[in-house]
Design brief:
It is a single-pass membrane protein. Its main location: membrane. This is TIGR04211 family SH3 domain-containing protein. Keywords: Coiled coil, Membrane, Signal, Transmembrane, Transmembrane helix. It is built from three helices and five strands. By secondary structure, the protein is an alpha+beta fold. It has a domain of 59 residues: SH3 Domains (SH3 type barrels). Strands 3-4-5 form a three-stranded antiparallel β-sheet, with no helix packed on it. A two-stranded antiparallel sheet has the order 1-2. It is elongated. The N terminus is likely disordered.
Amino acid sequence: MRLGLTLAALLPAPILAQDARAYVSDELAVTLRAAKGTDATVLGLVHSGEAVTVLAQDTDSGYARVSTADGRRGWLLSRYLSEQPSARQQMESVLADLETARARILELEALSGVDVEALLEDNERLRRELEKSAADEQLRQRKSELARAQRDALVAGALVFVVGLALGAWATRRLAKPPAGWREL
């Protein structure tokens, strides 16, 4: 194992031209150790994006005991653990979703064959018609309420008239006969 790590260290690093723009890689390899601490035996490397199962946490030392997908168990620094997949994995997923969405948009545009501007104009026209229809309905309701109020006023007036007529007739009959004991002139 140490021979492999030594050979990897001896491989030449990529040579970059002076003043060339370069980026720090997001590829990370964390050492998996047999015990907590930097002096413990290295069991191997766990690369960024690899899923591990946390078996125990030691907050005092900052190490977590983990189990890798291939069955290795050991300790690594818990500051390198995250509950979310790596940014690279998330980006790959987002890019795949974006490509799927773009393909679907193209497919729908081809199937629809509809002029979007015409749809927007129709939408605006229909919205105006709906507003006018709602205003017309309010006007009809107000007219109906007014007609009902006028009808109620007419009924009340007619009732007053009939009662007045009845009272007038009664009073006339009552006053037409002289009370008993009055003489007629």
